[in-house]
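Review form for a predicted model. The reviewer records the input and the model, then writes brief findings.
Reviewer: anonymous (R2)
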Amino acid sequence: LSFPAKSFPFFPGFGDSFNIDTKRPQIIPGSREAFFGYTVQQHDIGGKKWLVVGAPYESNGQQKTGDVYKCPVPSDGHGNCTKLNLGRVTLSNVSERKDNMRLGLSLATNPRDSSFLACSPLWSHECGSSYYTTGMCSRVNSNFRFSRTVAPALQRCQTYMDIIIVLDGSNSIYPWVEVQHFLINILKKFYIGPGQIQVGVVQYGEDVVHEFHLNDYRSVKDVVAAASHIEQRGGTETRTAYGIEFARSEAFRKGGRKGAKRVMIVITDGESHDSPDLEKVIEDSERDNVTRYAVAVSE
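Model under review:
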C-alpha cells in the first residue's frame, strides 16, 4: 500500500510517503492471553534493528504483572522474542501490589540514547489499610539492561515508623503469659512491612537485652511468631530508665531507617528502681525526636 507525495497536488510541502508490505509481511507470534503486541516501539542498537513489544497481561510467577519483549528484525517467524522480565523488578522499602499492574501498557523511547521506558500505570503500594495507585516505570538502557525505576508520584507512607517496645521482664511482672498476650495484641494492630512499620523489642529488668531488632522481620505474622517465643528473663530490680536509654541509644540504631518516625512504647508495672534517672533519659529521648508511650500493667 503506497501513498506517494505527488498524490496531494493541492497541498505542496504537506505530502509524506510510507509503504506497507502486504505480500511479504513479517509475522511475530506471541501470547493472545498476554495481549502481546498491545504496544510496539522500534529500537536500534548499533545498526541492528529490534522491536520492543508490550504484553500487559503477561504473568510472572503467580502474578499477572505484564512484561516487555525484545524481538529481532527481521524475524524468522518462529517466535524468537525474549522476555525482559521487567515484571520482576521491585521497589525497596515499599509494600507493593504488582498483580494486574499492566506493565507494557505504555512504552516510550528516547532517541538520544536509545533507552526506553516501560510503564505500569496500575502499579500500587500499600499504606496502612489503603492502596494508592501511582504507577511506576522501568527505564531500560540501549542494550536492554534494566537501569532504574521511575515513580514520580510515589509518596512516603504516614505509617513509615520504627517502633521499639521496651518490655519489663522483671520478677514483679506476673503472670508473664498475660503480658505476652497483651504484647501480641498490640503487634497485630501494626501495619508492618516494607515502607511502613518496623518493630523491635528489648526486655529489661536489672539488665537489658535485644529480643529482636527492627529489621529482623518484615510482616505481622513473623513478628507475632517471634513475640510468642519471648520468655521472661526476670530480675530483682526494675531499671526502667536504663531500658529507655538502651532503646534510645542502641535499639533504634539496629536496623533503624533514615527519615522514619521513632516511637518507643514502654510496657511496665510502674515500679522503677532507677527513677532518679528518668528525667535525664526522657530529655535525651525528646532531643532525639522519639515519641514515647507508657503502658501500665498490673495483676
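Findings: The first strand starts at residue 39 and ends at 45.
Further findings: Helices lie at 176-188, 220-227, 240-249, 278-287.
Recommendation: see findings above.
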